């Protein structure tokens, strides 16, 4: 089962590389895709009980300046994971 999670994480890495940098125009769609990828990563970390990786990802998502362009589509991030 562990192997399948690694396959998902590899797919997420490829998706992020394919997505590239935030564009000057059309950023809302780009951010939507970026958030979907991060959500997939988060779920893998959840199922593997990797709370440190979950917390790091949450903090990374909170630091993203362009996510404000999503307005009402902006994800509601969970509270920090206690260690």
Describe the structure.
The protein is mainly alpha-helical and 83 residues long. The chain has one domain (2-73). 61% of the residues lie in helices and 0% in strands. It is built from three helices and no strands. It has helices spanning 2-19, 27-47, 51-62. α1 (2-19) runs antiparallel to α2 and α2 (27-47) packs antiparallel against α3. The mean pLDDT is 82.
End-to-end Cα distance: 25 Å
On the 0 to 100 scale, the average pLDDT is 82
Envelope shape: globular
- Calculate Rg over CA atoms: 13 Å
Total domain count: 1
Low-confidence stretches: none
Tally the beta strands: 0
**Quaternary form:** single chain
Number of helices: 3
Order of helices and strands: HHH
Helix amount: 55-70%
Largest sheet: none
Please state roughly what percent of the residues sit in beta strands, choosing from under 5%, 5-15%, 15-25%, 25-35%, 35-45% or over 45%. Answer: under 5%
Structural class: mainly alpha
Layout: helices, strands, pairs:
Elements (H helix, E strand, L loop, with lengths): L1 H18 L7 H21 L3 H12 L21
Helix pairs in contact: 1-2, 2-3
Key attributes of the depicted protein:
83 residues, globular
Summarize the structure.
This protein is an all-alpha fold. It is built from three helices and no strands. The two termini are 25 Å apart.
């Amino acid at each position: 089962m562990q192997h399948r999670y690694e396959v998902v994480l590899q797919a997420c890495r490829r998706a992020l590389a394919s997505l590239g940098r935030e564009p000057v125009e059309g950023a809302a769609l780009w951010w939507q895709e970026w958030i979907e990828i991060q959500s997939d990563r988060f779920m893998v970390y959840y199922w593997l009980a990797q709370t440190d990786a979950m917390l790091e990802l949450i903090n990374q998502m909170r630091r993203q300046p362009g996510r404000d362009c999503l307005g009402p589509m902006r994800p509601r991030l969970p509270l920090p994971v206690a260690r």
